[in-house]
Automatic annotation (TrEMBL):
Transmembrane regions: 348-371
Spans annotated as Disordered: 1-30, 250-287
Pfam family, one: Pkinase
Domain of life, per lineage: Bacteria
Native organism taxonomy: Bacteria, Pseudomonadati, Pseudomonadota, Gammaproteobacteria, Lysobacterales
Biased composition (Polar residues): 251-272
Protein name: Non-specific serine/threonine protein kinase/serine/threonine-protein kinase
Keywords: ATP-binding, Kinase, Membrane, Nucleotide-binding, Serine/threonine-protein kinase, TPR repeat, Transferase, Transmembrane, Transmembrane helix
Organism: Pseudofulvimonas gallinarii
Ranges of the TPR repeats in the UniProt entry: 472-505
Stretches with biased composition (Basic and acidic residues): 13-24
Length: 908
C-alpha cells in the first residue's frame, strides 16, 4: 500500500489534470465530457455512465483518504467567484443528509475554472419503473412509500430535490428485498441557489429539473413558490407511472394519448387502464380500488400546491393506508365506503362467521375450542385476581396505618419553614392571608414524600419480595410519582431498583425493560447525572430496536436520548435524535396527536439551539396553536411556552418572550408549586428576560430567588443550580457590580471544571464569561492565563478547529494585545490561519474567523499592507458574496470586516 498522497508510476502516467481555461484557448467540457484517467479533486475518472440536463455522471475512483468507487457528477456551466463562495456554503447542507434510502454525498467542489462537481455514493441499481415491471401493484406502492420516507427526511433538513424522476430513484435487491436509493438529492437545489440556473452563470445551463415531472410552479419558473410540495407533485407523477406504465400525457400502448397534465384535466389512472391490462407482473385491482388510487394521484398532482398532500410523509401514510385496506384521507368518508373498507380488512373473520352458521360440525368444534380457551383464561383470571387482591391489601396497608399526628407535625414544620423565608415573618398574620403566603403544592409534595411514598417503598419491599414482577410494577409507579413532583434523586433510586428486578426475571419482558430504562434515564438527566443518563438512554435505544417497529416506546427512547444530548449542550446530536423521534411519531400518529406535538416542539427547540431559528419558529407556532386549542393538557402547554420563549428571547423579541414565560410560570406554580424544579427554571428564564427588558430590580429578585431555590431543592452543585448562579452573575455585570459577579463566576467555573470536566461546554461558557469580565476589569494577565487554560482543554475535547476552540484562541490573542504583546498575538493568529488554510476541509468557516481577527489586529496596529494581503488572500470570497445568502456567523464576520476603517483596500 502506498503512503497517502503518493502514486506509483502507472498512476502518474495514466492521470492528467482537468484543464478548462477558455482564456488559453481550451474549450470547456461539453456536458462534462471527461476522458478516463482525468483527475477531479481526489477522484480519478474511470468511465462515463450517463448524462442529464444538469450534466454528466462518471464512475470514478476516490484516491484519498480512502479508496472506493464513487459516482462523480460534473455540472454544466461555471461559477463566478461570488457564486463559488455560496456553492461552498450550500454543499455543507447536502452533506448533512443521512438516510438509508438516500445516496450519500461524500464531497463537492469546483474546478479551478469554476465548474462545480459532486462525488456521491455509487449505486448499482435500476430505475424504479424498470424494477416495477416484475412487481405486483402492492409491492410497487410499498416501495414508493419507502421513497417518500427518504424524501421527508431531506425535507426536514431544508433540502428540496427538484428533480425527482424514475432515473433518480434507483432500486437494488439486498437479501431478497427491494430497496430504493435516491440520487442527485439537492443537487438541483444547490445548483439553483449557487446561480447555475440564472443569467449570471458563465456559459449555457438548463433549468433544474425534468419537465415531465416538474410541478406547475417549477415549470413556470416561479422560484419563490417552489417548496416541499413540488417534490410531492413529482412523486405523484412517479406513482401514476407505477400504476399505469406510462407518464401522464404520454401515448398509451393502445395508441391513445392522455390529456396534458397542465393544459387540461389530468386523465385518471383508472381511465388509462380501462381498455388495457396493467404492465407485466401486476394484477389489476378492482374498479373500486382503482378509484381510490385515482384520488391519491389526483391529490398528489393537484395544480394548486395547497390542494396537494402537505408533505411526503402524508403521501406515504396514504399509500400504507391503501395497502392496509384502511380508509384514505383523500376519499369522502361516506358510511358505505367505511363499511367496505372494514369488510375488506376483516374478510377472513366474516367468512369464518358465515361458515359457523352454515355448518353444525364447525360450530361444535368452535364450541369445544372456546371451552378450552375459557378454561385457560379462567386460570389466568384467577392468577390475576390473586395479584389484584394483593394490590388491594397493599393499598389498605398504605392507608390504614397513616399517622395523622405525624403528618400534622410535619405540616406545621414545613409551614414554619416557609414563613421564616418571608419578610412578613415578624408580622401577626390573619387567617385570610395564609393562602397568598403559603405554597400549598410544595407543602403537599413534602407530606406526600414523607408520609406516603417513603412508606410505599417500605411496604413493597416487605410484602412482595417473592413476586419481583409485581413489585417492580408497583415500585415503578412510585418512582414515576417521585419524578413528576420533582424529587429526582428519590426517583433515580426507586427506578434503578425497578430495572434491576425486571432484568433479573427468568424471562424478562422487553417492553417493561424499555419502560424502566426510559424512566430511569429521564430521572438521571433531571438529577444532573448526564453521563449516567446518556449510558442508560443508549441502552434504551438498543433495547427498543428488538421490539416491533413504530411503537410509542421507540418515540420515548429516542426522545430521552435527545434530551440527554441537549443537556450536555451537544446540540447537533440532539437535533438528529429529535428529528428521529418526530419521524417515528408521524409514522404512527396523526399530525395533531399529543405525541407528535411533544416531539415537534422539542425538535423545534433543537433547531433553534443548533442555529436554525428561522426553521424553528413556524414549528413552534404550529404546536402552540394546537396546544391552546386543547383543554386540560397544561403540562404540554407549559413546555411549548417555555421553549418558544427561549427562541423569542434569543432572537431579540424579549417582550413577547417575557409574556409567554409569565404565563408558563403562573401555570406551573399553580399546579406544582414554587419549589418545583421546572417552576424555578422558568423563574430563572424570567429573570434574564426582565434584565434584557430593562427592569434590573425585578430581574435581580427573580434570579436570586431562582438560584436560592435551586440550591435548596437540587443541591448547590447541581448543573441547574450552577446555571442559575451564572445567570445571576451576568445580571450583576449588567449592573456594574463587578466584584460580586467575579466571585460568583470564579466559584461556578471552579465547580464546573471539577464536576463536569474542563472540556465541558458548560465549563467553557462560564469560563468565556469570566474572561470577558476580567478584561472589563482590566485584569488582563488573569484573562490570558484563563483563556490559555480553556484553549488547551477545548483542543483535547472538541478538536483544534471547532468554533469554540477558535473563539478562545482569538480571545487569547486579544489578551496578548491588552498586555502589550501585539507581535506575539499576530504571530499566533498567523500560525493558526496558515494551519487552517492547509486543513481547509476540517477548518471550514473557522478560516474566515481567524482571517477576520488577524485583519482587525493588523488594522489596529497600523499595518495596512498586511491587512490588505489578508483581505485579498483569505477574505475575498466572503466579501464578494451577498450577505443575505450567508449563514448568520459568516454574515457577522463579513459585516465586521466592512466596519473596519479601510483607507487603502478597494471596496468588495
Amino acid at each position: 500500500m502506498l503512503p497517502t498522497g503518493e502514486t506509483d508510476a502507472d498512476d502518474a502516467d495514466a492521470t492528467r489534470r482537468l484543464e478548462t481555461r477558455t482564456d488559453e484557448g481550451v474549450d470547456a467540457p461539453e456536458a462534462g465530457v471527461l476522458a478516463p484517467g482525468t483527475l477531479v479533486g481526489h477522484y480519478r475518472v474511470v468511465a462515463r455512465i450517463g448524462s442529464g440536463g444538469m450534466g454528466a455522471i462518471y464512475r470514478a475512483e476516490q484516491l484519498q483518504p480512502v479508496r472506493r468507487t464513487v459516482a462523480l457528477k460534473l455540472l454544466r456551466g461555471r461559477l463566478s467567484t461570488r457564486q463559488r463562495a455560496y456553492f461552498e456554503i450550500e454543499r455543507q447542507t447536502l452533506a448533512q443528509m443521512q438516510h438509508p434510502a438516500i445516496a450519500q454525498i461524500f464531497d463537492a467542489g469546483t474546478t479551478e475554472d469554476g465548474v462545480p462537481w459532486f462525488a456521491m455514493e455509487f449505486i448499482e441499481g435500476s430505475p424504479i419503473t424498470e424494477v416495477a415491471r416484475d412487481l405486483s401493484l402492492d409491492q410497487r406502492l410499498a416501495l414508493l412509500a419507502r421513497v417518500c420516507d427518504a424524501i421527508q427526511h431531506a425535507h426536514q433538513k431544508g433540502v428540496v430535490h427538484r428533480d425527482l424522476k424514475p432515473g433518480n430513484i434507483l432500486v437494488t435487491r439486498v437479501d431478497g428485498e427491494w430497496l430504493p436509493k435516491i440520487i442527485d438529492f439537492g443537487i438541483a437545489t444547490a445548483a439553483a441557489r449557487a446561480g447555475l440556473a440564472d443569467a449570471a452563470v458563465e456559459g449555457p445551463v438548463d433549468m433544474a429539473g425534468t419537465p415531465e415531472y416538474m410541478s406547475p410552479e417549477q415549470l413556470e419558473g416561479r422560484l419563490a413558490s417552489i417548496d416541499t410540495r413540488s417534490d410531492v407533485y413529482a412523486l405523484g407523477v412517479v406513482l401514476y407511472e407505477l400504476i399505469v406504465g406510462d407518464r401522464p400525457g404520454i401515448a398509451s400502448q393502445s395508441g391513445r394519448t392522455a390529456s396534458s397534465t397542465r393544459s387540461g384535466p389530468l386523465t385518471a389512472p383508472s381511465q388509462r387502464l380501462r381498455s388495457r391490462r396493467l404492465p407485466t407482473g401486476a394484477a389489476s385491482p378492482r374498479r373500486g380500488r382503482l378509484r381510490e388510487l385515482d384520488r391519491v394521484v389526483l391529490t398528489a398532482m393537484a395544480h394548486d400546491r395547497n390542494d396537494r398532500y402537505p408533505s411526503a410523509i402524508a403521501l406515504a401514510d396514504e399509500l400504507r393506508r391503501y395497502l392496509a385496506h384502511l380508509p384514505l384521507q383523500a376519499m369522502p368518508a361516506t358510511p358505505g365506503y367505511l363499511l367496505r373498507r372494514f369488510a375488506r380488512r376483516h374478510r377472513l373473520w366474516l367468512a369464518s362467521g358465515a361458515a359457523v352458521l352454515l355448518t353444525l360440525v364447525g360450530g361444535l368444534v368452535l364450541s369445544l375450542h372456546a371451552f378450552n380457551q375459557a378454561r385457560i383464561q379462567r386460570g389466568v383470571a384467577e392468577a390475576r385476581q390473586h395479584e389484584l387482591e394483593q394490590v388491594v391489601a397493599f393499598q389498605q396497608a398504605m392507608l390504614s396505618d397513616i399517622d395523622v399526628m405525624d403528618m400534622g407535625r410535619r405540616l406545621v414544620g414545613h409551614v414554619r419553614d416557609q414563613l421564616s423565608r418571608r419578610s412578613e415573618r415578624d408580622t401577626v398574620l390573619q387567617v385570610e392571608q395564609l393562602p397568598g403566603i403559603l405554597d400549598g403544592p410544595s407543602l403537599a409534595r413534602a407530606i406526600l414524600v414523607e408520609s406516603v411514598l417513603k412508606r410505599a417503598e417500605s411496604i413493597i419491599g416487605q410484602r412482595f419480595e417473592t413476586q419481583p414482577a409485581l413489585a417492580a410494577d408497583l415500585l415503578q409507579s412510585v418512582g414515576e410519582v417521585y419524578h413528576a413532583i420533582g424529587q429526582y434523586d428519590e426517583a433515580v433510586a426507586a427506578l434503578q431498583s425497578v430495572l434491576e428486578q425486571r432484568v433479573a426475571l427468568p424471562q424478562p419482558d422487553l417492553e417493561s425493560v424499555v419502560d424502566a430504562q426510559v424512566a430511569l434515564a429521564n430521572s438521571l438527566e433531571r438529577s444532573g447525572q448526564f453521563d449516567a443518563a446518556e449510558a442508560m438512554a443508549s441502552e434504551a435505544v438498543a433495547t427498543v430496536e428488538r421490539l416491533p417497529l413504530d411503537s410509542s416506546r421507540h418515540i420515548a427512547a429516542t426522545m430521552v436520548r435527545a434530551q440527554v444530548a441537549r443537556s450536555k449542550i451537544e446540540y447537533g446530536k440532539a437535533r438528529q435524535w429529535y428529528e428521529k423521534a418526530l419521524d417515528a411519531a408521524l409514522r404512527i400518529h396523526p399530525a395533531d396527536h399529543p405525541e407528535v406535538a411533544r416531539a415537534r416542539q422539542q425538535y423545534a427547540l433543537s433547531l433553534h439551539l443548533d442555529g436554525a431559528s428561522d426553521q424553528a419558529r413556524p414549528q413552534f407556532e404550529q404546536v402552540l396553536s394546537v396546544q391552546r386549542g386543547q383543554d386540560g393538557n397544561w403540562q404540554q402547554l407549559v413546555g411549548v411556552l417555555v421553549n418558544y420563549a427561549a427562541l423569542l428571547a434569543d432572537t431579540g423579541d424579549v417582550a413577547a418572550a417575557l409574556e409567554l414565560e409569565r404565563e408558563a410560570y403562573a401555570l406551573n406554580r399553580q399546579h406544582l408549586g414554587a419549589d418545583h424544579p421546572l417552576t424555578l427554571m422558568i423563574l430563572n428564564n424570567m429573570g434574564m428576560s426582565m434584565m434584557e427588558a430593562g427592569d434590573p430590580v425585578e430581574a435581580m429578585a427573580a434570579l436570586e430567588e431562582a438560584a436560592e431555590g435551586r440550591a435548596r431543592v437540587l443541591g448547590p452543585e447541581h448543573p441547574h443550580t450552577l446555571r442559575s448562579r451564572a445567570s445571576l452573575a451576568r445580571a450583576l455585570v449588567r449592573l456594574d457590580r463587578h466584584d460580586q459577579a467575579l466571585a460568583i463566576y470564579s466559584d461556578v467555573y471552579t465547580m464546573r471544571r471539577r464536576i463536569l470536566g474542563p472540556g465541558s461546554l458548560d465549563t467553557y461558557r462560564v469560563g468565556r464569561s469570566l474572561a470577558d469580565l476580567l478584561k472589563r476589569m482590566g485584569r488582563h494577565e488573569q484573562m490570558l492565563s484563563l483563556t490559555r487554560e480553556m484553549h488547551a482543554s477545548l483542543v483535547q475535547t472538541q478538536g483544534p478547529w471547532a468554533e469554540d476552540t477558535i473563539d478562545v484562541a482569538i480571545q487569547t490573542a486579544r489578551a496578548m494585545v491588552d498586555i502589550g504583546r501585539p507581535d506575539d498575538a499576530i504571530r499566533r493568529l498567523r500560525e493558526l490561519l496558515d494551519a487552517a488554510s492547509a486543513q481547509s476541509v476540517e477548518a471550514g468557516d473557522e478560516r474566515y474567523a481567524l482571517a477576520v481577527a488577524l485583519y482587525e489586529l493588523y488594522r489596529g496596529q497600523g499595518r495596512d499592507a498586511d491587512a490588505d494581503d489578508v483581505r485579498r488572500r483569505h477574505l475575498r470570497p466572503l466579501l464578494e458574496t451577498d450577505g443575505e445568502q450567508l449563514a448568520p456567523r459568516l454574515r457577522r464576520l463579513r459585516e465586521t470586516v466592512l466596519r473596519v476603517p479601510d483607507a487603502t483596500a478597494s471596496a468588495p
